[in-house]
Amino acid sequence: MRKVFHFILTAALLCGTSLKAEATSAADAVEAFSILPMIRSVSVSPDGKQIAIVRASTKNGDYYIEIRQTKDLTKDPVKLGASKMLVSGVSWLNNEKIAVSFRQILRDGASSYWVGQFAITDADGKGDWLVPFQSKKNIRGYQIIDPLPNDPNEVLVEVDINANYIPDVVRMNVKTGRTKMVLRGNTKRSGGFTPDADGEIRAATGWNASEDTIDIFARKQGDDDWQLVFQNSPSDRSNFDFLGFNDENPNEIWVNANRGQNTTGIYLYNLETKKYSERLFGLENVDVDGVMFDRFGKSLGFTYTTKQPKRYFLDLEMQSLYQGIEALFPGEFVSLSSYSDDYNQIVIRTSSAKNPGTYYLLSYKQTLNKIGDVSPQIKPDMLSEVKYISYKTRDGLKQKAYVTLPTKGKAPYPTVVMPHGGPWARDVNIYDPWTQLLASQGYMVVQPQFRGSTGYGMKHWKDGDKQWGLIMQDDMDDSALYLVKKGLADKNKLGMFGWSYGGYSAFAASMRENNIYQCSIAGAGVSNLDRINSTLNESRFLRELQKPTIEGVSPIDQVEKVNIPILVVHGDIDERVPVIHSREFVDELKRLNKDHKYVELQDADHFSDTLFYDHKKEFYGEMLDWFTNKCGF
Fold first, then answer.
1. SS3 of 628, please?
2. Distance, CA of 621 to chain centre
3. Which of 96, 319, 569, 614 is deepest in the core (most CB within 10 A)?
4. What residues form DSSP beta bridges with 111?
5. Distance between CA atoms of residues 251 and 223, nearest Å
6. Which value, to the nearest 10 degrees, does the dihedral of the CA atoms of residues 359, 363, 366, 368 take?
């Protein structure tokens, strides 16, 4: 790649012109925001000759795969799909083979749950479908952990091959499905498998029950002996992640860790000397997210997040490429979602508060073709600007929050506090359909990054320990009170809406003394702290770290204190926060004759990925009706 790129752009727009925008009524907004994304993903083959588009066929998604030739995007594509399972994604394994991810609901007696799997087929649509491990009926889940770009006919797959609840790693031939054992998992090392550029598993993680720690291991190239590099315990937890091996020294591994500092930074750990480098990259107020690698494991730079994700480049050619592309899209967040090995075909995704997402193909750094919009039915004039603000809590702590301004009305606005889930997470609001839906109806939305959120340093994270419904809840209230003080929020029109941990917060908000809210909406919320310890975090290792931190207000024990109207929404097959949390809370609301409504979404799991058009239309309609008619907004 040259260090300076000159772009000669031609427009070859594939998705048609936009329609004239109309006024956004509640019904129009619910309809527009309920439609699933028209494009789910776009990726280019390693040689750059083909792109794979996961495209919707209906409002409900019903996704299929288009394979188009990059030299002529207007040519009729190859179309691939399935009749019994839903397509959810696609990835290139080599220049001819693709792995297609599927999902479906399995019903086992009274239980129903979503399951996913993948199958391999030819991108030209002429080959058979290869379903890995089809003959092994006891294997329920598996995932590709490395496509092995230096060996185009094989991939590394993590799978519990013995059905002993301990995952293993196998090398699988993408043409035949034959596998060869690479690493057999055991009770000491049972996850976090990290391969080097040659496909050798040289880092792993395990739960040490005797010492109550997460143990992190690595080994030198070609060595059978594992080194214990780090132990993380619930009593003295810190951030420590292996990110990948150094392409310049195979016995060095990139680490994102605190190493005694408040925020995380990037280090290299040398497996021969057993020593860390100096802090190679870090910031004072936010954690580092990670290291950017290309497909072959070359380190390109570092990433971190302030209002939006940002990049610090080590590779000057990649920096020049990014800067050249970003200049084409002022005001947009630009990501290179996929590119060919020679960078002559690059899939670009742009997004912003006023753009749910648009995909382009940049060919030979000269021709820019628009592939399509993620949600073409959502017009820019339906969307609002998002501000990133600082506010002070009642005890003087400076906190961050996103504020989405309404598209209509004037200050002071009716305002919705929308805490994120997790709570070990943080918001990154480039485009958020929930805040934009509410803003389109005249509501200001604030997303506080309360204590217990991650990404803002160790102290901010740990200050949320054992503060569920207490200091964490105060921080949320203080974000609304700050906006009231500034004349932006109407103190008589405040509400809370949240999902998951945010749903828990909405439960807790409904029973606060001297309540600042007029109503709340609890989505997929935790109501009983005694029930949640085993399911709150996807990683079983992180669950062990998080368990001791979950203390505070348990809403199910204090339903008699509910003093505002509450709408409760939950999916009936939620595996992360089981629906019993809402059902039991609602039973108590009924018993105590509290003002409430309950909506249960059939066949909906916990995450937005399992909320389909009908779910969203029901949920969004109920939400807007609640704020308008029950809350008086």
1. helix
2. 25
3. 569
4. 108
5. 10
6. -20
